[in-house]
Design brief:
Chain lengths: 239, 215
C-alpha cells in the first residue's frame, strides 16, 4: 500500500546531505513551507544551495536558514527587498554566493528539469549582463528567426520543499490561490519532494479534475496547522 | 505664455489607461504602473495578470480582509475578480514570454530613443542586483510601455541616446508615458504623441537632448 503521509516534519524530511540543492517554494508571503524550512534548520544540513524566488524576508523561514549559516549559494530572481537584511549582510560580507536569474528563466529551468529537457533557448536576458554564467563566461547564444536567444540549462534539485493546501496518501496535491506559485514545477524538478498540507483527505476525495500536482511528483507529505501568513514571513495560527 | 505643468502620477496613469483597449490582457509593473489599474475607463473590460499566477486580479481588499495567499507581484494583498484564475509560475511566465499579454507597463531608469530599456539595475558597485520578471515582460509582451517621470531629480533626461545602466532588453519599448509628454520609440528615433499644454516640441527636444519627430 502506498502511504506517503509522514507524522512529523522530521520524518517527512528524512536525511538531507550536506551540499544538497534544495528547491524552496513560495513567492512573497504566499506558499512558503515555513515548517519544512524550520525542520531543515533543526536537521542540520550545511553548505546548501537554495533555489527560491527571493532570498528571505525578516528573520524567519528562509532568512532563518541563511542566518544559521547553512546556505553556501542562493539561486533567485529578486534577493533585494525592504526586509532582506539577513541576506544583504551575508552577501555584502562575501559569505554567500548569488546566482541571479530572471524569474521566467528560473521557472522554465525548473520546468525543464522536471520534463527531461536538456537545455532551451530563450530571448529573455539576451544582450544583458544576465546572459552570463555565474563565473562570468558568456552563455551560448543563437539567432533564431532573426531574434537573439540565450541557451539556458535545467535546475535540478536534490530536495524540493513546497506548501500545498490539501493532499491524500498518494501525494496528490491541491493548492490555495497564489500560494501555488513555484510548487508544481519544483515538485517535478527534485529527486525528492516534501509537501506540507493543511488538510489530508481520503483517497478519491480530491476531484481528479482539480489535482494540480499528481502524486507521482511527491515523495512525502505532512499535515501542518493552517496559518495566516503575514508580511515579513511570520505566521500565526488563526481560524 | 505660462510654464508647462507636469502631469501628476495619477494623470500619467490616466493617460496610459486611455490607450488600453477593451478586452486587453495587461501586466502592470511594480511601482508607478500599478496606479494604472485605478484609471481603466468603466466601459472597458481589462484583465490584469500578476506574475505570481493570477489572471483577473482585482483591487486591494478592504482593511481587515487581506489574505496573504492572494498577493500581487509587489507582495501586496489583492482580490480576484469573478472569472479570475490561478496557475503556477511556469504557466504564468509562459503567458508573459510566449506573447500572450497585450500590454505590459513598466517603470524605467532609462529608455533609449530606439526603445532599449534599463529598469533593473543602476550598476552601482556594491548594490545588490534584483531582476524579478522584468526581462521576461520586456521580451514577451506584445507591447511594452514605460511609465516614468521624464527627468531625474537632477534634471537629466531619462530618455537617452544610449542607456548607460545595464539593459533589461534591447529595442523592446513601444511607448513612453511621462509627466511632460507621451512619445513613441521607433527604429528612426523618438516621435511625439502628445505633450502637456505650453510645452512645444522644440522645448521637449531641448529637455531630452534628442530629435523628436512630429506626431
Amino acid at each position: 500500500m502506498i502511504d506517503k503521509l509522514a507524522s512529523t516534519v522530521a520524518e517527512a524530511l528524512g536525511e538531507v546531505p550536506d551540499g544538497a540543492t534544495v528547491l524552496i517554494g513560495g513567492f512573497g508571503t504566499a506558499g512558503i513551507p515555513v515548517e519544512l524550512i524550520d525542520g531543515l534548520i533543526a536537521q542540520g544540513a550545511r553548505e546548501l544551495t537554495v533555489v527560491n524566488n527571493n532570498a528571505g524576508n525578516g528573520d524567519t523561514g528562509l532568512a532563518a536558514l541563511l542566518k544559521a549559516g547553512r546556505v553556501r549559494k542562493i539561486v533567485c530572481s529578486f534577493p533585494r527587498q525592504a526586509d532582506s537584511h539577513v541576506f544583504d549582510a551575508l552577501y555584502r560580507s562575501g559569505r554567500i554566493e548569488l546566482e541571479l536569474v530572471p524569474q521566467g528563466n528560473l521557472a522554465e529551468r525548473l520546468r525543464a528539469a522536471g520534463a527531461g529537457i536538456g537545455a532551451f533557448f530563450t530571448p529573455t536576458g539576451y544582450g544583458t549582463e544576465l546572459a552570463r554564467h555565474p563565473d562570468g563566461r558568456p552563455k551560448e547564444t543563437r539567432m533564431i528567426d532573426g531574434r537573439g536567444h540565450v541557451l539556458e540549462t535545467p535546475i535540478h534539485g536534490d530536495l524540493a520543499l513546497i506548501k500545498a493546501e490539501r493532499g491524500d496518501r498518494w501525494g496528490n496535491l491541491c493548492y490555495r490561490m497564489a500560494a501555488r506559485n513555484f510548487g508544481p514545477v519544483m515538485a517535478s524538478a527534485a529527486k525528492r519532494t516534501v509537501a506540507t498540507v493543511h488538510e489530508i483527505v481520503e483517497l478519491g476525495a480530491l476531484d481528479p479534475e482539480t489535482v494540480v500536482t499528481p502524486g507521482i511528483y511527491v515523495t512525502r507529505l505532512v499535515q501542518v496547522p493552517r496559518v495566516a501568513t503575514r508580511p515579513g514571513g511570520t505566521a500565526e495560527a488563526t481560524r | 505664455m505660462s510654464a508647462p505643468v507636469p502631469r501628476s502620477k495619477d494623470e500619467i496613469a490616466r493617460r496610459v489607461a486611455r490607450d488600453i483597449h477593451d478586452g486587453a490582457y495587461v501586466n502592470l509593473g511594480i511601482g508607478m504602473p500599478t496606479l494604472v489599474a485605478n484609471h481603466i475607463p468603466p466601459d472597458r473590460e481589462v484583465i490584469l495578470h500578476s506574475e505570481n499566477g493570477i489572471l483577473g486580479m482585482g483591487p486591494a481588499p478592504p482593511a481587515g480582509e487581506e489574505d496573504y495567499d492572494l498577493i500581487n507581484a509587489g507582495k501586496q494583498p489583492v482580490t480576484l475578480r469573478p472569472g479570475g484564475a490561478f496557475f503556477h509560475h511556469a504557466d504564468s511566465f509562459a503567458m508573459m514570454r510566449g506573447g500572450h499579454l497585450d500590454v505590459c507597463v513598466l517603470g524605467a531608469f532609462q529608455v533609449s530613443a530606439r526603445g532599449d530599456l534599463a529598469n533593473w539595475s543602476t550598476g552601482e558597485p556594491g548594490a545588490i542586483p534584483a531582476v524579478g520578471g522584468a526581462m521576461d515582460l520586456a521580451i514577451g509582451a506584445k507591447q511594452v510601455w514605460v511609465m516614468m517621470e521624464l527627468l531625474t531629480r537632477q534634471g537629466q533626461s531619462k530618455i537617452v541616446a544610449e542607456c548607460s545602466y545595464p539593459l533589461t532588453a534591447a529595442a523592446c519599448v513601444r511607448r513612453i508615458y511621462t509627466d511632460l509628454a507621451t512619445l513613441e520609440c521607433t527604429p528612426q528615433g523618438l516621435r511625439l504623441v502628445d505633450a502637456v499644454p505650453a510645452l512645444t516640441r522644440e522645448a521637449l527636444q531641448t529637455l531630452i537632448g534628442l530629435p523628436v519627430a512630429e506626431p
